[in-house]
C-alpha cells in the first residue's frame, strides 16, 4: 500500500498543469512552474507572456528543456503509468482536462482546450484564481450591503418592538384605569343597594312587628275561646240543672271589641320608594359621586367678543348682527367671535357638554390663560388652543403645523363632550349623543386652562342657533 501511494505521489509531479498529460519536452519558467513546450508555446502565440499558474511575467526568449522532468515522464510512459488527476480536481466533460478558466461570457468553468477553441474567441475569460478574487470582491460588496440592510432592519425591529412594548404598557395602564373606574362605580352601586335594602328591612320590621304582636294576641284569645267552647260543649251534655245554675251567663263580648284596628297604610310597604323608576333615581343620586360629573359651566362675559350675545344665565352664546357697545379689556376677544368659560382649571378631571344642534359652524375646546385674544391668532396648540371645529359638514382639528380633517362621523353630533385631565395631560372630544370618541390632544399643562367657545359665522343666516352649555338638568 505504501509503495503504491509513493508511486502515485511522484507521478503527480510530472503532469503538465495545462494538458494534464505526462510532460512532453517540459520547460521550466523563472517562477519555478513547469509546462509542456507545446502548451506554453500556445500561450505565447496568444501574446501571453505570463505563467498560467501564478501569472508572473517571463521574458520572451527561447525556453530550455528540463531534462530531469523529461526523463521522469518518459520513465512513467514506459511503465505504462496513467496520469492521475489530483483529488478534488474538476475536469472538462468534453476534453477531460482540468477546469482552470472561468468564461465570464457564458458564466461557466472551461479548460485550456475550450479556451483556445474558436467558439471562445471573443469571450472574456479569467483564470480561476483571478475570477475567485473578483467574485470575492463582489461578494464582499454584497455582504457589506447586506450588513447595512441588516443594521437598518435591526433598528426598525428594535423601534417596532419598543413601540409594541409601549403600546402594551399603555394598554395595561388603560386596563387598570378602566377596572378602577368600574370598581368605584360598583362600590357606589353596592353602597346604594345596601342602603336601600337596609331601609326596606327597617320599614318591613316597623310594619310587621306590630302585626306579629297582634297575631300573638289573637292566638291567645283563640285559645281562651277554645277552652270556653270546650267547657260549654261539656255542659251541653249535662242534664243536671244544678250544673247550669253554676254557670255565669254575662253579656256576650264581640271579638271586634278587643281586636285593634290596623290601617291599610300601616300594612303596605312604600312601592313608590322601593319600586318606581329605581334605576333613574339611583343614577340621579350617583351624579354627585361620579368623577368627573358633567360640570355646570357658565360663560365669562368679560372675555366675549362684542358681537356675541349671551343668555341671562350665561349658558348660551350666539352671534349677533352688530357689535355691542361694551367696554374693551385685556381679556376680551376682539377679532374672533369667541368667549371663555368663567371657571378655569389647574388640576383634576373635568367634563362638560355643549349642544351644537342645528349649527353649521362652531369651534369648541380649551385654551390656556395666557393664550392671545387680540387680533387674528390661529387657534392651535402652539398658541395655547386645543379645539375641534365644524366647517362644511366636516370636523377638523389643528396640530402644531397644520389642520387635519377627522374621519367622517357616521352621525352628525348634536352635542359635543369635552374631557380635560389636567395632570394626565389630555383633552378629548366625544360625540355626546353616544359617547363615541372624536379626537384626543396630549400636552403637559402648566397654567390655568379655560373652556373655549366660538359659535361661528352666520353669513347666510343658517347658523343662528346658539351654542348651549348643557348642565345636569339641561339639554
Please describe what this structure looks like.
There is one protein chain. This protein is α+β, with helices and mostly antiparallel strands and 475 residues long. The protein has helices spanning 2-12, 37-45, 67-78, 112-116, 128-236, 241-245, 255-258, 271-274, 278-286, and strands spanning 26-28, 34-36, 101-103, 108-110, 125-127, 308-310, 316-319, 339-340, 349-355, 362-368, 385-391, 394-398, 403-405, 415-421, 426-431, 436-442, 449-454, 467-470. Strands 6-7-18-9-14-15-16 form a seven-stranded antiparallel sheet, with no helix packed on it. Strand 11 and strand 12 (394-398) form a beta hairpin. The N and C termini lie far apart (110 Å).
Short description:
By secondary structure, the protein is of the alpha+beta class. Helix content is 35%, strand content 17%. The protein contains nine helices and 18 strands.
The biggest beta sheet, please? 7 strands, antiparallel
How would the global form be characterised?
Answer: elongated
Classify the secondary structure makeup into a structural class: alpha+beta
> How many E-type strands?
18
Report, as a whole number of angstroms, the end-to-end distance.
110 Å
Topology order in helix (H) and strand (E) letters: HEEHHEEHEHHHHHEEEEEEEEEEEEE
Mean pLDDT across all residues, rounded? 83
How much of the sequence lies in strands comes to 15-25%
> How would you write the strand order of the largest sheet?
6-7-18-9-14-15-16
Radius of gyration: 54 Å
* Helical percentage: 25-40%
- Low-confidence stretches are 1-5
Question: Helix count, per DSSP?
Answer: 9
Amino acid at each position: 500500500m505504501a509503495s503504491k501511494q509513493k508511486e502515485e505521489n511522484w507521478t503527480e509531479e510530472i503532469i503538465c498543469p495545462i494538458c494534464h498529460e505526462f510532460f512532453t519536452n517540459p520547460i521550466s519558467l523563472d517562477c519555478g512552474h513547469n509546462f509542456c513546450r507545446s502548451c506554453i508555446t500556445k500561450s505565447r502565440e496568444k501574446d501571453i507572456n505570463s505563467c498560467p499558474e501564478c501569472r508572473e511575467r517571463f521574458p520572451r526568449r527561447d525556453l530550455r528543456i528540463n531534462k530531469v522532468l523529461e526523463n521522469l515522464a518518459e520513465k512513467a510512459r514506459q511503465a505504462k503509468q496513467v496520469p492521475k488527476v489530483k483529488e478534488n480536481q474538476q475536469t472538462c466533460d468534453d476534453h477531460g482536462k482540468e477546469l482552470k478558466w472561468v468564461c465570464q461570457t457564458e458564466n461557466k468553468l472551461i479548460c485550456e482546450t475550450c479556451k483556445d477553441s474558436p467558439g471562445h474567441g471573443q469571450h472574456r475569460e479569467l483564470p480561476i484564481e483571478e475570477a475567485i478574487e473578483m467574485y470575492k470582491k463582489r461578494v464582499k460588496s454584497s455582504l457589506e450591503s447586506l450588513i447595512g440592510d441588516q443594521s437598518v432592519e435591526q433598528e426598525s425591529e428594535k423601534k417596532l418592538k419598543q413601540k409594541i412594548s409601549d403600546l402594551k404598557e399603555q394598554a395595561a395602564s388603560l386596563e387598570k384605569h378602566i377596572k378602577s373606574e368600574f370598581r368605584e362605580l360598583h362600590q357606589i352601586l353596592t353602597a346604594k343597594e345596601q342602603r336601600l335594602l337596609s331601609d326596606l328591612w327597617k320599614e318591613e320590621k316597623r310594619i310587621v312587628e306590630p302585626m306579629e304582636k297582634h297575631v300573638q294576641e289573637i292566638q291567645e284569645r283563640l285559645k281562651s275561646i277554645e277552652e270556653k267552647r270546650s267547657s260549654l260543649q261539656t255542659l251541653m251534655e249535662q242534664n243536671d240543672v244544678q250544673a247550669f245554675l253554676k254557670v255565669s251567663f254575662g253579656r256576650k263580648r264581640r271579638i271586634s271589641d278587643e281586636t285593634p284596628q290596623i290601617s291599610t297604610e300601616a300594612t303596605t310597604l312604600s312601592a313608590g320608594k322601593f319600586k318606581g323608576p329605581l334605576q333613574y333615581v339611583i343614577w340621579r343620586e350617583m351624579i354627585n359621586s361620579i368623577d368627573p360629573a358633567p360640570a355646570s359651566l357658565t360663560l365669562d362675559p368679560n372675555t366675549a367678543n362684542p358681537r356675541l350675545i349671551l343668555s341671562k344665565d350665561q349658558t348660551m352664546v350666539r352671534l349677533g348682527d352688530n357689535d355691542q357697545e361694551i367696554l374693551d379689556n385685556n381679556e376680551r376677544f376682539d377679532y374672533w367671535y369667541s368667549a371663555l368659560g368663567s371657571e378655569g382649571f389647574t388640576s383634576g378631571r373635568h367634563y362638560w357638554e355643549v349642544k351644537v344642534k342645528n349649527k353649521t359652524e362652531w369651534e369648541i375646546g380649551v385654551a390656556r390663560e395666557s393664550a392671545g385674544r387680540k387680533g387674528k391668532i390661529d387657534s392651535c396648540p402652539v398658541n395655547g388652543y386645543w379645539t375641534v371645529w365644524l366647517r362644511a359638514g366636516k370636523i377638523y382639528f389643528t396640530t402644531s403645523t397644520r389642520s387635519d380633517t377627522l374621519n367622517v362621523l357616521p352621525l352628525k353630533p348634536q352635542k359635543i363632550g369635552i374631557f380635560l385631565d389636567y395632570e394626565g395631560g389630555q383633552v378629548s372630544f366625544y360625540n355626546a349623543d353616544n359617547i363615541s370618541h372624536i379626537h384626543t390632544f396630549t400636552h403637559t399643562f402648566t397654567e390655568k386652562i379655560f373652556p373655549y367657545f366660538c359659535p361661528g359665522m352666520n353669513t347666510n343666516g343658517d347658523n343662528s342657533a346658539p351654542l348651549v352649555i348643557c348642565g345636569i338638568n339641561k339639554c
